[in-house]
Amino acid sequence: MANNQNERKAGISQPRNIATLLSILVPGLGQIYNRRIVKGIILLIITISFLVTMWNYIDIGIWGLFTLGTIPQEHHSIQLLLQGLISLIVLAFGIAIYAYNLIDARKDAIAREEGRPNPTFIKGMSNFYDKGFPYFMILPGLIMLVFIVVLPLLFMLALAFTDYNQYNAPPRNLLNWVSFDNFVNLVNVDIWKDTFFSVFTWTIVWTVVATTLQIVLGFFLALLVNDKRIKFKRTIRTVLILPWAVPAFVSILIFSALFNPTFGAINRDLLAQFEIMIPWLSDPFWAKVALIMIQTWLGFPFVFALFTGVLQSVPSDMYEAADVDGGTRWQKLRHITVPHVLFATAPLLIMQYAQNFNNFNIIYLFNEGNPPVRGQNAGGTDILISWVYKLTFETNNYNMAAAITIIMGVLVMGFAFYQFRKTAAFKEEGGRY
Q1: Cis peptide before 119 (omega within 30 of 0)
Q2: Exposure string over 74-88, b if 16+ CB within 10 A, otherwise e
Q3: Closest CA to 223 of 85, 317, 341
Q4: Domain total of the chain
Q5: Residue ranges making up the domain that contains 57
Q6: By three-state DSSP, how is residue 168 classified?
Q7: For 55-99, what is each residue's pLDDT tens digit?
Q8: 173 in a domain, yes or no?
Q9: Tens of pLDDT along 345-365?
Q10: 86 and 193: one domain?
Q11: pTM
């Protein structure tokens, strides 16, 4: 019993434990105890400055984050929510500094136990330059990233769990945390359920069909142009890439005019020759067909340019060996060309699917997601991203828009992560990731 008490006292009296305890009580004291006076004073000043300048802000922010205000028209729930999120970020930085203080004090105390001398000021600056300078240089960029990217994402995530809409908006009303009610309403309430599943299925069809068509068309044209029998290849490549050179919004607006059922050239000059009039803008089905054709036209030049470069890098001796073995044109395409192209371009092709999943420009510029559909609060050609835009800027259903945005983000990240994991271009040697 006496031995255990002696060992416990000896453990407490070890410099590492004393330095850690002092750093827990007051950041910087552990460094001063380790005779790192300058470092200890700097940490102490940083701690005092942080507490003096940020304590009240963090206190109010955390309170507002949990309550979203208690007095209508005096407390603004959105401002309190934003202040609360900023407080969490600032508090995380403070905790990181506090953790560094503990780790550093304990590390110096261990060096003291082992009899290693404290580094001189010049040596300490040299160590900082060798090990800590890169982190110090990326710190401003990291802080900007947190407040420009992470903070808006957290704000959107928080809105999805509130009742912020056109009928309940601050400062007239206070917001409330509603847990997962917004997500439940998407699949339970009739108008939200019908609209969500209709828009969601069209978004999937749009993404798969439009992206696949532009990839297939680009690959087919790249194969043709890469054929040895084709002459004037440079001219043909230049012509095929021209749609990519024109700004997309200009092309979309031109196509919107061309597909106009009243004065558009497609109906008036082309289909009229066969006595056919198609309601491109007023019928949801034909509007979707038009959108898919337009996206195929806009998207294939990039894929064509990508595949053209890759096809030129395929070793010719592989085709020669296939010819010796009696391989057909189809077998060479299937076993040589396609695997080689997909290995080099799969990540970019996956990005094409992700980009079209959130392709707001073409949907909104062509016909603003119209035509209207009875019983739904989204247009017949709206995809999830354009529906979110309408919910945010037209009907002010911020909570539902945030909930749908979260679902979109999860779908895109899940699809991209799964496909990247299956892509050979992302595998290391030996088949491991």
Answers
A1: no
A2: ebbbbebbbbbbbbe
A3: 341
A4: 2
A5: 2-159
A6: strand
A7: 999 999 999 999 999 999 899 999 999 999 999 999 999 999 999
A8: no
A9: 888 888 899 899 999 999 999
A10: no
A11: 0.83
